[in-house]
Amino acid sequence: MKKQRGIQMTTPILLHISFILFLFSVTCHGHSELNLLLNLKTAMIGPTGSGLGDWVPSSSHCSFSGVTCDDESRVIALFVTNLPLFGYLPPEIGLLNTLVNLTISSDNLTGKLPPEMANHTSLRLFNISNNFFQGRFPGEITLGMTELEVLDTYNNNFSGSLPMEIIKLQNIKHLHLG
Ligand SMILES: *[C@@H]1O[C@H](CO)[C@@H](O)[C@H](O)[C@H]1NC(C)=O
Ligand SMILES: *[C@@H]1O[C@H](CO)[C@@H](O)[C@H](O)[C@H]1NC(C)=O
Ligand SMILES: *[C@@H]1O[C@H](CO)[C@@H](O)[C@H](O)[C@H]1NC(C)=O
Ligand SMILES: *[C@@H]1O[C@H](CO)[C@@H](O)[C@H](O)[C@H]1NC(C)=O
Ligand SMILES: *[C@@H]1O[C@H](CO)[C@@H](O)[C@H](O)[C@H]1NC(C)=O
């Protein structure tokens, strides 16, 4: 009898503790991803750019336009298209490594693609078409993107030879390098 009561007492306490831990982890992800997206916004909006008006600290990052989250409030899709941003894609993009879809197209972004993109090993769709990204396309970022099905880099300012790494993309269905 005594033993049973012991169990009955501890179970709710354990539940309570794991609930607090769960809330803590959700809040942590929430906070860091919110700040990440705000940093992303600052970088992507160049001196003459504008857009992403509802990406503000007082909102939940999962309600930002163009942002899709999973059940744990982690960003799994970004759809930022047709905005006059004129900035660049910062290295912090690598920290959003739960992304499955990344479309940042027709935004007039400039600069080089950050090598930190290599962290996006869950990516299925990667669309950076219609920007002014320049320099070499860093083919090595695709080496870990084993799930990639769509790669669209159409109409940018890339230079240099074709990235040979893309021949290793076994799941690719749509490739546009024009
Ligand atoms: C990613 O894009 C594909 C194709 O457009 C779509 O079917 C899928 O629902 C998207 N996934 C997310 C998480 O947005
Ligand atoms: C991008 O720049 C071009 C001029 O180079 C302009 O015609 C176009 O409207 C711009 N796109 C956006 C979304 O501002
Ligand atoms: C890749 O993602 C992991 C896990 O989120 C993170 O710890 C690491 O710093 C990221 N690396 C880069 C280069 O962004
Ligand atoms: C990439 O985005 C552009 C819009 O800027 C769209 O027209 C194009 O169809 C997209 N590519 C793919 C493969 O979905
Ligand atoms: C893109 O390349 C064109 C010529 O190929 C050049 O006129 C333009 O200045 C470049 N734009 C940027 C933002 O690098």
TrEMBL record:
Key word Repeat present: yes
Superkingdom in the source lineage: Eukaryota
Subcellular location field: Membrane; Secreted, Cell wall
Signal recorded as keyword: yes
Leucine-rich repeat-containing N-terminal plant-type domain sequence ranges: 32-70
Predominant subcellular localization, coarse grouping: membrane
Signal peptide positions on this chain: 1-30
Keywords: Cell wall, Leucine-rich repeat, Membrane, Repeat, Secreted, Signal
InterPro entries referenced in this protein's UniProt entry, alphabetically: DNA_repair-toleration, Leu-rich_rpt, LRR_dom_sf, LRR_N_plant-typ
Entry GO terms, CC: membrane
UniProt similarity note: Belongs to the polygalacturonase-inhibiting protein family.
Descriptive protein name: Leucine-rich repeat-containing N-terminal plant-type domain-containing protein
Organism: Ficus carica (Common fig)
